From TrEMBL:
Higher taxonomy: Eukaryota, Metazoa, Spiralia, Gnathifera, Rotifera
Annotated protein name in UniProt: Dynein light intermediate chain
Family: Belongs to the dynein light intermediate chain family.
The protein's role, per its UniProt record: Acts as one of several non-catalytic accessory components of the cytoplasmic dynein 1 complex that are thought to be involved in linking dynein to cargos and to adapter proteins that regulate dynein function. Cytoplasmic dynein 1 acts as a motor for the intracellular retrograde motility of vesicles and organelles along microtubules. May play a role in binding dynein to membranous organelles or chromosomes.
GO MF: ATP binding; dynein heavy chain binding
InterPro entries on file: Dynein1_light_intermed_chain (IPR008467), Dynein_light_int_chain (IPR022780), P-loop_NTPase (IPR027417)
Region described as Disordered: 382-418, 431-485
Length: 485
């Protein structure tokens, strides 16, 4: 083998190695181009009043029942599900406190570094429809003032504003068969090559004159950042209809003003309720569409008043006016607070604080004694008891003296009555309780000439029975029987 042959062989080997290296480089390049790059961190800022349903909203977007609540500035994240990626992107969610005094914390959630990759959501609640417009105006002003304070270069600020205009102009509704933008592109040159069409798309993106101009009422308050308005607790529409007698015109009037606000800021509109899971699924897909450029094919929905969905770019002044064109009682230029007024709640007037001074013990007891004496029924004296009133059982009563027997008014009769009275008095004295034991012997009758008159008297033992002794007195014989004796 000659020297020339060796040189040619080595050059052939080198060429093969270079060709093999180029093949691997091409394969690696193709794999790198086909693999989705990890997107930069994205942020969602939730602005709204307290008790507007912000925590429940984020919990449903995360797929959990509830989330932990904090104070000041809360931070959560939502996992972005993508089967084409090994890593899972996370959408950061910032929730400043609903108190306006905490708005200074907004600088940590939205600043110059993450402005391009952020989105803002205004959250209001249908449970308090009279506060909806005031809340939207308050938080939109807070956001506008905050963005003006950011040190964003003028060139970048203009670029952000232009992107929001183009996003509104280039919206395509899946339900519309004819799209003006597609027709404009097709009519320019239907026989364009692939590269020419690519250049046309880029020229449209860079030149707003190729797009339809915006209506005068659209994007008058362009902030250069995507915005959505979320009306939570939309199921309260049925409660307002039942309890507060809201009619269809009232709900159309509320929707009319919300859509006018959204048109001014170029915002999308969502009605959500925990009773319809699809409302949160649709909101989730729209968020990742706007932030991560995922496809979104859901059409607008304005038929069901509890499931309203209006994407940014679909609405216009003519569609909004349809809501109240048939209304006879509510006009479009009516003041919102007059038509949707807050119900009046009667509150008791606050009483003056009374100073309670404790009285002394003796004074308190004296007052208590007076109250007790007034509430107590006076006791009945024993001598006032009627003879017909029966005494309760197991109550012992001293036997009363039997009435004196009346006879002829003679001197002997008076003497006999005196003796009889003395007998019963002695009998009562013996029955009275004493320290000496009582005997059961009958008392000795006093000697008298009228002893025969007591012959028919039935005496009882003088012992103490279980019940008071009863004395049975038989009537005295008449005068004639006495004389016969």
């Amino acid at each position: 083998m000659t020297v020339n042959d060796n040189v040619s062989l080595s050059s052939q080997v080198t060429e093969d190695i270079n060709q093999f290296s180029n093949i691997w480089s091409q394969i690696l390049q193709d794999v790198q181009n086909s693999t989705k790059k990890t997107p930069p961190p994205k942020s969602l800022i939730i602005l709204g009043d307290n008790e507007s349903g912000r925590s429940t909203l984020i919990a449903r977007l995360k797929g959990v029942e509830s989330i932990s609540k904090g104070i000041g500035l809360e931070y959560h994240y939502i996992d972005i599900k993508d089967e084409d990626r090994d890593d899972v992107p996370k959408l950061g969610v910032w929730i400043p406190d609903g108190d306006a005094s905490s708005t200074n914390l907004l600088k940590y959630a939205l600043n110059e570094s993450n402005f391009e990759n952020s989105m803002v959501a205004f959250v209001v609640s249908m449970s308090n429809p009279w506060d909806i417009m005031d809340s939207l105006k308050k938080w939109s002003k807070i956001l506008t003032d905050h963005i003006k304070k950011l040190n964003i270069p003028e060139a970048k600020r203009n670029e952000y504003l232009r992107k929001q205009r183009q996003a509104f102009q280039m919206y395509q509704d899946p339900d519309e068969n004819v799209n003006v933008l597609n027709n404009k592109k097709t009519n320019l040159n239907s026989s364009m090559s692939k590269n020419d069409k690519k250049d046309l798309n880029e020229s449209i993106d860079n030149d707003d004159s190729l797009l339809l101009p915006l209506d005068p009422s659209v994007l008058n308050s362009n902030l250069g950042i995507p915005i959505i308005v979320i009306v939570t607790k939309s199921d309260y529409i049925s409660i307002l209809d039942k309890d507060m007698e809201y009619r269809i015109e009232h709900f159309d009037f509320i929707q009319y003003h919300i859509r006018k606000f959204c048109l001014d800021y170029g915002a999308a509109l969502f009605y959500t309720t925990v009773k319809e899971k699809k409302t949160f699924d649709r909101l989730y897909r729209y968020l990742i569409h706007k932030l991560y450029s995922y496809p979104f094919n859901s059409a607008s929905s304005v038929v069901d008043r509890e499931l309203i969905f209006i994407p940014s770019g679909w609405d216009n002044e003519g569609k909004i006016n349809i809501l109240l064109e048939n209304s006879t009682t509510i006009k479009s230029d009516s003041d919102f607070s007059e038509i949707i007024s807050k119900p009046t709640i009667r509150k008791s007037l606050p009483r003056e604080v009374e100073t309670i001074i404790a009285s002394e013990d003796q004074e308190f007891l004296a007052k208590l004694q007076i109250l007790l004496s007034k509430s107590t029924t006076p006791s009945v004296k024993s001598e006032e008891i009627s003879p017909s009133v029966q005494m309760p059982p197991q109550v012992f009563k001293t036997p009363q003296k039997p009435p004196l027997l009346k006879g002829p008014s003679t001197t002997g009769t008076d003497r006999d009555s005196t003796n009889l009275k003395n007998f019963f008095q002695n009998l009562l004295n013996k029955n009275a309780p004493s320290s000496a034991p009582l005997t059961s012997s009958a008392p000795t009758l006093p000697t008298s000439s009228s002893a025969s008159n007591l012959a028919n008297i039935e005496q009882t033992p003088t012992g103490i029975p279980n019940s008071p002794p009863q004395v049975n007195v038989s009537p005295l014989p008449n005068q004639s029987s006495e004389s016969n004796a």
